[in-house]
TrEMBL record:
GO terms for cellular component: mitochondrial matrix. It comes from Lithospermum erythrorhizon (Purple gromwell). Its main location: mitochondrion. This is Malic enzyme. Heterodimer of two related subunits.
Length: 602
């Protein structure tokens, strides 16, 4: 039942690189120096003579024309020299230097920036995305040079409908918004959290081929409760406590109405909101707008694909998923999202009466039905007291005790607490009832991972399956054996969810669409890969898996009658496409950076 993965994406990429096909023209409404200062259109020294004449650029650039390919090599050379020159310096210093050089390129020439990003995604994702993006957010006020995206705050009440027209692009397809209240595992970073929507949208361009002229990162500055930032005179956001209750929600309502007034078909991804607002806004808007919460829903789909892959890796039939003992550490927006989706999968696979074997812990230990004030989303996962007593456990039992008594098949961390899977916990996983236990340390960035890859293989044994939210190197186990590290990160789904929703004109994003996305990711991996403990595709193939996920989203949206069509492609036409045609349609609509001839129009 598992489809063979398409493995030729790297080859395809290489052959497409610098192809000689003539790209279509692009209309530009400015001339001369204004073009050189606009990263959407700027080609630096790459403007051909005819264009220099046509656009009033003659004399504004050094005379020699440098090809796109030469510019690309020049950038990569300077990037690698920087790497060489910073060798031995602290990791954070090196990562920020790399981020700066990439960011400078972005601010000058987006076409070249996205080309180097797409072609070197494995190398650059850790810089523009997790883990470095976390460091960037922590240092944002000092790093700030040029604005990217839009900012809305309590001071903008009543103005948002007109403010949205300040954005220079006529069309916006994809928006990622945060309120900065839970940035990765780093907590409340206020306005500095804008780095996350920027990084996520860079992944949208790189993985999903969303046109960068149609993306919009957004920060809702509703204040911050981070005392350090409130006292920091360089802090760039409002130095006020966070809005709460109705004051908060009415502001988000106004924002959602404003952006949809100007761009009714824009898809909105909510990102890194603290749990209460993540759930509340998802409930509030998911039936009205085409939106989703990546931390709740994207993460759940990626984790479920990993959990299903684990069952295959353990050599068990998929129906055994219902029997897997899964310990989830972290009862926040991500952990609860994962359990909710896993529960749906259990009832699909084993029937609605099947009892899952899930154990949930938060900062106060194992959650049982004895727990007072459990969040309503966690209630279905609070263990009955008699069941935990039978295992020799009790309400609030600590992680080590739970692992020792439960002997889980899977230990999954979404707690944001670095190192919580310590030596004792990992050693206890050796007693797992599974011959191939899985350990997912999904918290970001790297320092917040529940354990490192090296520690997982060292203490829990060589036969584990391992996944982490931030990248780790594969582990050399000696004797030519490799401990494979999977990057269990929602980046394998959110770009495809957004792309698919866009290309079918989805009114809303349904559970069925999210489930289809997760199944698509799970079935992408071959049995051979799974046997080696490889649960997710290499990030080098992220465009390929994203296209597949996008097509799965389109087809499910059509089947569930929530698709309204895209551009001049009607929902009827989409419905008549075969599976292969849908995939081809998605692929064809993915933007790829080339220098288009620029044509001036007043
Ligand atoms: N890999 C991915 O794709 C991915 C996706 C989403 C979130 N995350 C990561 O997951 C983490 C949590 O995100 P969230 O949105 O759920 O945050 P959250 O703040 O909503 O939840 C955190 C949860 O962890 C619990 N916790 C805190 N300390 C604990 C401890 N010592 N032991 C057990 N539990 C503890 C809290 O009680 C809470 O239930 C973050 O680090 C985030 O970066 C990763
Ligand atoms: O941003 C990431 O890398 C994943 C996830 O959305 C998170 O919040 O940690
Ligand atoms: Mg997130």
């Amino acid at each position: 039942m598992w489809r063979v993965a398409a493995a030729a994406s790297t080859l395809l990429r290489r052959s497409r690189r610098f192809s000689t096909a003539i790209p279509g023209p692009c209309i530009v409404h400015k001339r001369g120096a204004d073009i050189l200062h606009d990263p959407w259109f700027n080609k630096d020294t790459g403007f051909p003579l005819t264009e220099r004449d046509r656009l009033g650029l003659r004399g504004l650039l050094p005379p020699r024309i440098i090809s796109f390919e030469q510019q690309y090599e020049r950038f990569m050379d300077s990037y690698h020299s920087l790497e060489k020159n910073t060798r031995g310096q602290p990791e954070g210093v090196v990562s920020l230097a790399k981020w700066r050089i990439l960011n400078r390129l972005h601010d000058r020439n987006e076409t070249l920036y996205y080309r180097v990003l797409i072609d070197n995604i494995k190398e650059f994702a850790p810089i523009i995305y997790t883990p470095t993006v976390g460091l960037v957010c922590q240092n944002y006020s000092g790093l700030f040079r040029r604005p990217r995206g839009m900012y809305f705050s309590a001071k903008d009440r009543g103005e948002m409908m007109s403010m949205v027209y300040n954005w220079p692009a006529k069309q916006v397809d994809m928006i990622v918004v945060t309120d900065g209240s839970r940035i990765l595992g780093l907590g409340d970073l206020g306005v500095q959290g804008i780095g996350i929507p920027i990084g996520k949208l860079d992944m949208y361009v790189a993985a999903a081929g969303i046109n960068p002229q149609r993306i919009l990162p957004i920060m809702l500055d509703v204040g911050t409760n981070n005392q350090k930032l409130l006292e920091d005179r360089l802090y760039l956001g409002h130095r006020e406590p966070r809005l709460e209750g109705e004051e908060y929600l009415s502001l988000v309502d106004e924002f959602m109405e404003a952006i949809h007034e100007r761009w009714p078909k824009a898809i909105v991804q909510f990102e890194d909101f603290q749990m209460k607002w993540a759930f509340e806004t998802l409930d509030r808007y998911r039936g009205k707008y085409c939106m989703f919460n990546d931390d709740v829903q994207g993460t759940a789909g990626v984790a479920l694909a990993g959990l299903l892959g684990t069952v295959r890796a353990q050599g068990r039939p998929l129906t055994d998923f219902a029997k897997e003992k899964i310990v989830v550490v972290g009862a926040g927006s991500a952990g609860l999202g994962v359990l909710k989706m896993a529960l749906q999968a259990v009832s699909r696979i084993a029937g609605p009466k099947a009892e899952p074997h899930f154990f949930l812990l938060d900062k106060d230990g194992l959650i049982t039905q004895e727990r007072k004030n459990v969040d309503s989303a966690a209630v279905p996962f609070a263990k009955p007291s008699n069941e935990v007593l039978e295992l020799g456990l009790q309400e609030g039992a600590c992680l080590t005790e739970v692992v020792k008594k439960v002997k889980p098949d899977v230990l999954l961390g979404l707690s944001g607490v670095g190192g919580i899977f310590n030596e004792e916990v990992l050693k206890a996983m050796k007693e797992s009832s599974s011959i191939k236990p899985a350990i997912f340390a999904m918290s970001n960035p790297t320092n917040n991972a529940e354990c490192s890859a090296v520690d997982a293989f060292k203490h829990a044994g060589e036969n584990i399956v391992f996944g982490s939210g931030s990248p780790f190197e594969n582990v050399d186990l000696g004797n030519g054996k490799i401990g494979h590290v999977n990057q269990a990160n929602n980046m394998y789904l959110f770009p495809g969810i957004g792309l698919g929703a866009l290309l079918c004109g989805a009114r809303i994003i349904t559970d069925g669409m999210l489930q289809a996305a997760s199944e698509c990711l799970a079935s992408y991996m071959t049995d051979e890969e799974i046997q080696q403990g490889i649960l997710y595709p290499s990030i080098d193939s992220i465009r390929d898996i994203t296209a597949e996920v996008g097509a799965a989203i389109v087809r499910t949206a059509i089947a569930e009658e929530v698709a309204e069509g895209h551009g001049d492609v009607s929902s009827r036409e989409l419905a008549h496409m075969s599976k292969e045609e849908t995939l081809e349609y998605v692929r064809k609509n993915m933007w790829y950076p080339v220098y288009n001839p620029l044509v001036h129009e007043k």
